[in-house]
Amino acid sequence: KIITRHDVTVRPVIITIPFLKDVIQKYEWELPGNTLIIDSPIEKLNVFAASQAAIAKSGTGTLELSLAKVPLVVAYKINIISYLMIKLFVKVKYVNLQNLVIDKEIIPEFLQNKCKAHLLAESTLKLLKGDDEAKKQIDAALEALTKLGFGSDLAPSVKAANVVLDIINQ
Q: Which residues have CB under 8 Å from 146's CB, separation 6+?
């Protein structure tokens, strides 16, 4: 079954690594609709190409989605002890690398208490409604990726490390 609400059809997709696919499939009965679980890089690229929007955790997946020109929102929730420890020692405005590079929330972040289904749905629906919000996000995210060195001779990991060091040294 595919979920349809607000004139939007959603096909949930979980992208994972091969050794976790079996673990996730054991819990498939708890997943909504006709959830697709994939563990292949080729399948992942095909899903990205077919996607109009995504909800992702912060990390390399957000970079990959931005490179594929898929607008997204970031969702991240960890246990409270880990969160408090991180808040104590890490002083950054954003968790998403593109937002850090641009120093502005171009990709909406829903962290901890803000990581709620209705907030994620509302923000994702805005990206799916066909207005300029998705295009603005994609353009800004591609600008951030360019600053990180995508498309240049310098390795993206080196460029990303330099950007993070610049932010830390401010």
A: 152
CB 93 within 8 A of CB 100: yes
φ/ψ (deg, to 5) at 132: -80, -10
pLDDT tens per residue across span 55-82: 999 888 899 999 999 999 999 999 999 9
Strand, coil or helix: what is 72? strand
Best CA proximity match to 109, nearest among 156, 76, 153: 76
Query: What's the whole-model pTM score?
Result: 0.79
Give the residue ranges of DSSP H helices in the chain.
18-26, 41-50, 60-67, 80-89, 97-102, 117-128, 132-147, 156-168
- Residue 152 three-state SS: coil
Pairing of strands 8-10, 3-5: antiparallel
Are the CB atoms for 41 and 64 separated by under 8 Å?
no
